[in-house]
Amino acid sequence: MSTPARILSPARVLSIAGSDSSGGAGIQADIKTITMLGGFAMTAVTAITAQNTCGVTMVETLSADMVAAQIEACVNDIGVDAVKIGMLGSAAIAERVADLLEGTGVPVVFDPVMVATSGSVLADAETIAAFERLMKLACLTTPNVGELAALGGDAAMNARGIAYIAKGGDATGEVVEDRLVLPGQEVQVWTAPRIETRHTHGTGCTMSSAIAVLLGQGAPLVEAIEDAREFVRAALLAAPGFGAGHGPMGHHAVR
């Protein structure tokens, strides 16, 4: 009788984010991404949204205590190798998350979610102000064009002395450019032809959670970003075409 192959423990990745009822973004996109990349997904839900490919119709934010309890339940029992932070829902949640994550020593990827793909606002001014602590403790912050502008642009990000990747997926033009800025180092730039599709719901969530799981598996930061970019592009190409608006990507089809 042959000996069974040894099962390697998957990277334990905690997603702290909002729930997307339509399954394209948020916690649902994170779970799909982490699973498809070989990780073990855990969640701390910050808010429940009623949304689909056309927009967000209702949001209910959980209490900071409930979010903290979810984080502690996962970390204290299962443990964690990496954390992805997405939609937070309130300044109180942002501050509580920072309290719990400071000093953990695991990679934290922070996606500073402010506006959904559909244009719905998901963070108020007080919550955005509370992002400061999270950007400092994260090993990478992943703003898109609008989020980077709201955070003060490259000048403000450089003044903070943090690592960030300026994503260009929602810019215009035939080429998508992503820029990795690391304090004291030369800027690294990736370019790729734009994939013409309206099915882009959850691209930011997918990118950040992919980077997190790859870091949790031990990949260096640049390698994790490169592989995450390829995962996002493959999922865009495999989009099933659901919905009348910005449809979900095809996480299920990426191998």
What can you see in these coordinates?
InterPro entries: HMP/HMP-P_kinase_dom, PM/HMP-P_kinase-1, Ribokinase-like. Its EC number is 2.7.1.49. Pathway: Cofactor biosynthesis; thiamine diphosphate biosynthesis. This is hydroxymethylpyrimidine kinase. It is an enzyme of class 2 (transferase). The protein is α/β, with parallel strands linked by helices and 255 residues long. The protein has one domain: UDP-N-acetylmuramoyl-L-alanine:D-glutamate ligase (3-Layer(aba) Sandwich). Helix content is 36%, strand content 21%. The chain contains 9 helices and 9 strands. A 6-stranded mixed β-sheet has the order 3-2-1-4-5-6, sandwiched between helices. It has a 3-stranded antiparallel β-sheet with strand order 7-8-9, with no helix packed on it. Strand 4, helix 3 and strand 5 form a beta-alpha-beta unit.
